[in-house]
Amino acid sequence: MVLIDMSVGLSTQVVDHYENPRNVGSLDKTSKNVGTGLVGAPACGDVMKLQIQVDEKGKIVDARFKTFGCGSAIASSSLATEWVKGKTVEEALTIKNTDIAKELCLPPVKLHCSMLAEDAIKAALADYKLKQEPKKGEAEKK
């Protein structure tokens, strides 16, 4: 059992996502339909890996994360994976750190955690989009 010091002002949403994280794990990063975002915050040492799996229609059908960091970073990652699932790639780009922070009731000192989550989503989407571009030489063959 993990104990959290509630005197630091963590919301019940943060505690819930920390104690019961959703979508922990990894997807096959070599798969063409999987995008991987790896981001970190040197100031606090948090590192976040977020992956998305996209179907042929451009809808995110799965998302996974692994985060090394505080409870707020883990909660932000967990919530981000829940929010991207079912969205199109374009819709997922509209998820903002301010929305994550508001949903989790993050205190100002923990806002960098929601910023990391937004950055991880954007990095995963960028990686996915890069994989969709034809490789040099492939386009000429067609």
Written description of the protein model:
This protein is α+β, with helices and mostly antiparallel strands. The chain has six helices and three strands. The protein has helices spanning 12-19, 71-84, 89-92, 97-104, 111-132, 138-141, and strands at residues 34-41, 46-54, 60-68. Strand 1 (34-41) and strand 2 (46-54) form a beta hairpin. Helix 1 (12-19) crosses helix 2 and helix 2 packs across helix 5. The longest helix has 22 residues, at 111-132. The protein starts with 11 loop residues before the first helix and ends with a helix. The model is unreliable at 1-7 (pLDDT under 50). This is Iron-sulfur cluster assembly enzyme ISCU. Belongs to the NifU family.
Outline of the structure:
This protein has 142 residues and is of the alpha+beta class.
Span from first to last CA? 57 Å
Q: Looking at the structure, what is the overall shape? A: elongated
Number of distinct beta strands: 3
Number of helices, where a helix is a run of at least 4 consecutive DSSP H or I residues: 6
Report the sheet with the most strands, covering strand number, pairing sense and barrel closure: 3 strands, antiparallel
What is the string of SSEs from the N terminus onward?
HEEEHHHHH
Pfam families: NifU_N (PF01592)
Family: Belongs to the NifU family.
GO molecular function: iron ion binding; iron-sulfur cluster binding
Domain NIF system FeS cluster assembly NifU N-terminal: 12-132
